[in-house]
Amino acid sequence: MQLLRRALHDLKNRRNIESYVITIVIFLFAFLSLFSDLLSEELRWAVLLSGVGVLLYRLTIPEPPAEPATELLHDRSAFETRPLSEVFANARDVRIFAPSAVNLLSAQTCDVLRRTVLSRKGGSVRVVVLDPEEKDAVRLAARQLDESLEFPVQRLPAALQSTLERLELMSGWQTTGTFAYRLLAYNPGFSLVLIDPESSHGRVIVEFHAFYNPSTPSRMHLELTRDTGERWYTYWVDQFTRIWDAARSPVKERD
Prior knowledge:
Elements: H1 2-12, H2 17-32, H3 41-60, E1 73-74, H4 78-81, H5 84-88, E2 93-97, H6 107-115, E3 124-130, H7 135-145, H8 156-171, E4 178-184, E5 190-195, E6 203-208, E7 221-224, H9 230-246
Parallel strand pairs: 2-3, 3-4
Antiparallel strand pairs: 1-7, 2-5, 5-6, 6-7
């Protein structure tokens, strides 16, 4: 299946066309050779030598410069064709970090999580947002996330309070799976969404906040799988683990 996807991608981008054509012709003549009376000896040799010639020619062509990783780089418009709520539908392990996560954790998405991930035995949803008690950190994050936008539509402090109320309500749900959330002392400058990160089909989405954006949806994000690079995939999974370990429980321990 991966070979077929690569071939379709090459054909779409008009790469290696001659190699695919000669390969098809060779397979066709190999099949027809089963019926030797249909092909002359000279024709079979001509096709074989043509194929060898094309392959030798391909070896002399230098590799083209690497193309931008268009399959990895997106803004939030990518979620219009396949919303994250649809991706969550088959997941068992969802991990989220964002300063407020107000756009991600909409009422619709939370309900999808309840009906899918949290309805499964062993299902798990973990969320980390900023700690509202860290006033300086929230003020600095608001300056970065709100004041750096050309067209803001909401303010971080209010968005964070809205999310915390929603998270508190979700923590009271009676579900088969487990739900938990924690609070981080400062904003590291990115957001994370991990979907079944320990599995072979896991996905990691990293969104960078940057210094300036026209709007929140215009922020760049990376979408990684193990196939795109085990090193950086594992790196970002570990980032969430460290964030979770560093974050505090929303319920303070009493003396």
